[in-house]
Specification:
The complex is a heterotrimer. Chain A is an alpha/beta fold. Chain A has a domain of about 150 residues: Glutaconate Coenzyme A-transferase. Chain A contains six helices and 13 strands. Chain A has a seven-stranded parallel β-sheet, sandwiched between helices. In chain A, strands 5-7-6 form a three-stranded antiparallel β-sheet. A three-stranded mixed β-sheet of chain A has the order 10-9-12, with no helix packed on it. Chain B contains five helices and 13 strands. The chains are: A alpha/beta, B alpha/beta, C alpha/beta.
Chain lengths: ~230, ~220, ~475
């Protein structure tokens, strides 16, 4: 195969990120965050990014002075955020300030809707009718329809250029497993991006992972870097 | 007589298709000639096979004494367990297909139209047919290649201007490889790119019910 | 004024609403404390959007050998025996699909209509970080709102009418505050319990909506004893008893990709012997292994759906591959179809999988490109989205689901084997009653929680394939 999925460094794995890219960032309250990839994204300096994540404020880098997403925002790299919890109102730091100043666009989506939009994007579905946002402010401007089960609103798929995920272990074909809460958004984000980059705690040869245990098959994982 | 001229064997058709598969790509092979394609992957190149039975990175078929009913491909054949396999449910398997994660599918056909419509799930005289995964593959795979005999056993054309059989997908076929020729459906019509050794454009046209447009770089079947 | 209840007492009162065997999802704020007050052996499973199904209060005192898991508020927790690790897609599907019995949320305001409003601050007008709140409100079969009865300025948090803006509509069933328990009954509020020392009048005075008084108004007294009850058992002694209530005219999902691998043969035979008629069968094939040895070792004749067709039990099939691939070896179903004895709804394979997933995951309908421009599109809405043509397909559910697993624990967690996972894992969440035939039932905790494919919340009954039972005739 051409060069395989292994990359020497997070920087190399993200070298082709263009300005204006949409990037999915997996993680839940600090679990399953691809910290080295986020640092590389910051160093790469690409601009006008759209970031999609659950809870950026918690995606903090162990050693860094500022949370990862906030770093990218204060570095002027982010044009838009799509998230169920873009920041903690009142203590949102650079994200909140940039949004208040009007130069950061924020789209707020309930997390179960966001995850289904990502799955639709990854699974080639053109749209899904979900009951979740019916009657709420999150369904107000959307197409509504009645079904046997009740009212639902049309939610459209969300696809991305890259997804940055953290996996417990992967084989060189990209088959990946997770550890506990580290799984969270990673499997669906891996499906929804054109290029999924996984930061792996362990990289092993094919055959070393139980084929029954694989959560993200290699077809969804395009690039691998070691997490240390 | 064109009818009696020698055509290429199935293995050569499969070999020609194998050349089209991207190195490192994910491929889903249908039943018949498509299944043979895996025997002809060029040296130094790797292809990963997806099966809608729920397994990725399929390897060779199992020996008779190692057959396991829990390890089959979409054609119901038994697979060997090979390193790097991953198992998944049908819903994930088709997310891979529809979501554009499968690079190429190679399918057989009853008919293909000049504009790339594919008909391969029902013969009208039977009145009932099996769709299986064909419609999802036709709609979802990034590239659909048809590998088949140029005509049916009665020498009726399978490549037609418009499909008369119920179609599987509209305008989905990007390349047709037969035992006589390699053709590319385009919005302008069917472009003839390669012909089998010993065959002329006119002879291939005689067995084709769609108007063939000879490519400017038309060549002999290239392996 | 008499004292108000503290957070833990409110949590204990909220926990008293739970029943053994329930799946419970907790939101942020006050609901988080419910995990802390549950008895260690409580027969409820807590669901965290951090991917833990069946976790305990905290990881303190538990061994650290399990997976690293978090509660919804990000604190470390440990799985209980029989718990499973799930992803975010699963979490959302469990809620939307109606598989979560109780959701607990802390809204800023609750309306007499049962609407709720999540919190927002003056600093961020119009911006609400819904996180999980909207999903919990829409998805929980029963929604309990926990909140202080009044705001810091003394104004009521429970108000009349409805809100022009809402984060949940008509969803709240019970309101638990620091002074009262109020039930929302057809758009009206009924005070059923008061904190010690509080009277109806005192509670009504700080409530911003008309408040009826229950005839048996009581003092709040949390009682968690009922939660230690045994869960109802899922393991049935044999096939016939597991399907005893499968009735004439039922819609039944039966899986198997096509071959004997992953097919619930013992349940199939039980169903044949039971003789129930007029069945609608949802399945990939409707019996081809017998005709063409699909996935069948040489020299064997596999039991498949054909035994139901031959016995005159099938009225209709919804399938992707209904007939034999060989015209000269027609299957029982094809012969019955030609006789006009059975109906057929033909569905592409990926569409069948997606319709089943939609049924189990609370998706009412979806647009798929599969089948656009073909016979399958007839009678369906067609729509161009982003320049590509799609057709609208509807969710599919069933009364019963008979599937084949490899192993299960007594809580119903199931693992499969190889390519026999196929439609089994997709069907399990989509039926009212899911019955799984397995090779072996083990105790909770014996299956690796990272490997569980079908969590027990989707499985109602288990039956072990008898030793010596042959899937072949």
């Amino acid at each position: 195969m051409p060069q395989g999925k292994l990359y020497d460094s997070p920087q190399a794995a993200l070298a082709d990120v263009q300005d204006g890219s949409t990037i999915l960032v997996a993680g839940f309250a600090g679990h399953g965050v691809a910290e080295r990839l986020l640092v590389a994204l910051l160093e790469g300096g690409s601009k006008d990014l759209t970031l999609v994540y659950r809870d950026g404020p918690y995606a903090s880098l162990g050693s860094g002075p500022l949370p990862a997403i906030e770093n990218l925002v204060s570095n002027g790299q982010v044009a838009k955020i799509i998230s169920p919890i873009p920041f903690s109102p009142g203590s949102g730091g650079a994200i909140e300030e940039s949004w208040q100043a009007g130069w950061l666009d924020i789209e707020i989506v309930p997390q179960g809707v966001l995850v289904e939009r990502l799955r639709a994007g990854g699974a080639g579905i053109g749209g899904v009718f979900l009951p979740t946002a019916v009657g709420t402010r999150f369904g107000a401007d959307k197409e509504k329809r009645s079904f046997l089960q009740g009212e639902a609103v049309l939610e459209l798929p969300l696809k991305a250029d890259y997804s940055l995920i953290k996996v417990a272990a992967a084989d060189t074909l990209g088959n990946a497993i997770y550890d506990g809460s580290g799984r969270n958004w990673a499997p669906v984000m891996a499906m929804a991006a054109r290029i999924t980059v996984a930061e792996a705690g362990l990289i092993v040869e094919p055959g070393e992972l139980d084929p029954e245990a694989i959560i993200s098959p290699g077809i969804f994982v395009n690039r691998l870097v070691a997490s240390d | 007589m064109v009818d009696e001229k020698e055509r290429l064997p199935r293995e050569v058709v499969a070999m020609r298709v194998a050349k089209e598969l991207p190195d490192g790509g994910f491929v889903n092979l249908g039943i018949g000639i498509p299944t043979l394609v895996s025997n002809f992957i060029p040296d130094g190149s790797v292809v990963f096979y997806h099966s809608e039975s729920g397994v990725l990175n399929c390897g060779p078929l199992a020996e008779e004494d190692e057959q396991d009913i829990d390890l089959i491909n979409a054609g119901g054949q038994f697979l060997q367990m090979v390193p790097g396999m991953a198992f998944f449910s049908t819903v994930d398997g088709f997310a891979m297909i529809r979501g554009g994660h499968v690079d190429v599918t190679v399918l057989g056909a009853h008919q293909v139209s000049a504009t790339g419509d594919l008909a391969n799930w029902m013969l009208p005289e039977r009145g009932v047919g099996n769709i299986g995964g064909a419609m999802d593959l036709a709609a979802g795979a990034k590239q659909v290649i048809v590998a088949m005999e140029h005509t049916d056993r009665q020498n009726n054309a399978k490549i037609v201007q418009d499909c008369t059989y119920p179609i599987t997908g509209k305008g989905c076929v990007s390349l047709i490889v037969t035992d006589l020729a390699v053709m590319q459906p385009t919005p302008e019509g069917l472009v003839l790119k390669e012909v089998a050794p010993g065959w002329t454009v006119e002879e291939v046209q005689e067995l084709t019910a769609a108007n063939l447009i000879a490519a400017s770089d038309l060549k002999e079947y290239e392996l | 004024m008499p004292p108000r209840l503290d957070e833990l007492t409110m949590a204990r009162r909220a926990a008293s609403e739970l029943e053994p065997g329930q799946v419970v999802a907790l939101g942020s704020g006050l609901p988080v404390s419910v995990a802390a007050v549950l008895p260690p052996d409580a027969a409820v499973q807590l669901l965290s959007d951090a991917g833990a199904l069946g976790y305990g209060a905290s990881s303190d005192g538990h061994s650290s050998t399990g997976p690293a898991l978090a509660s919804p508020d990000g604190r470390p927790v440990a799985l209980q025996r029989g718990g499973a690790v799930v992803g975010m897609v699963d979490w959302a599907a469990m809620l939307r699909g109606g598989h979560v019995d109780v959701a607990l949320v802390q809204p800023a305001r609750v309306y007499a209509s049962g609407d709720l409003l999540g919190w927002t601050t003056a600093a961020t007008p119009g911006l609400f970080a819904p996180g999980r709140t909207v999903d919990l409100s829409a998805g929980g079969r029963k929604v309990i709102a926990m909140l202080p009865h009044t705001g810091s300025d003394g104004s009521p948090n429970i108000v009349a009418d409805s809100s022009p803006v809402a984060d949940g509509r008509g969803c709240v069933n019970v309101i638990i505050t620091d002074i009262a328990v109020i039930r929302v009954e057809s758009g009206a509020l009924v005070l059923s319990e008061v904190a010690p020392g509080w009277s109806y009048d005192e509670v009504a005075a700080v409530t911003g909506a008309p408040l009826a008084q229950a005839s048996n108004l009581k003092e709040i007294a949390p009682n968690l004893e009922a939660l230690n009850a045994e869960r109802a058992g899922k393991v049935f002694s044999d096939g016939p008893s597991a399907i005893a209530d499968l009735h004439d005219g039922a819609t039944v999902m039966i899986d198997g990709f096509g071959g004997p691998g992953g097919m619930a043969h013992y349940l199939l035979v039980s169903l044949r012997d039971q003789g129930t008629r007029g069945l609608t069968i949802i399945s990939n094939t409707i019996g081809i292994a017998r005709s063409v040895n699909f996935g069948t070792p040489p020299g064997k004749l596999a039991i498949d759906h054909s035994i139901l067709v031959d016995n005159g039990q099938v009225a209709k099939a919804i399938a992707t591959y209904p007939v034999s691939p060989s015209m000269s070896n027609p299957s029982s179903f094809e012969l019955a179809y030609r006789r006009g004895d059975v109906e057929l709804e033909l569905v592409p394979q990926g569409t069948l999988a997606e319709r089943l997933r939609a049924g189990g995951a609370g998706i009412y309908a979806f647009y798929t490109p599969t089948g656009a421009g073909t016979l399958i599109a007839e009678g369906k809405e067609s729509r161009v989205i982003d320049g590509k043509e799609y057709i609208l397909e509807q969710a599919l559910t069933a009364d019963f689901c008979l599937i084949r697993g490899h192993k299960a624990d007594t809580m119903g967690n199931v693992v499969y084997k190889g390519t026999s996972r196929n439609f089994n894992a997709v069907m399990a969440p989509s039926a009212r009653i899911t019955i799984v035939e397995v090779d072996e039932v083990v105790e909770p905790g014996e299956l690796d929680p990272e490997l569980i494919v079908t969590p027990g919340m989707y499985v109602d009954r288990l039956v072990v394939r008898p030793e010596g039972f042959s899937p072949y005739e």
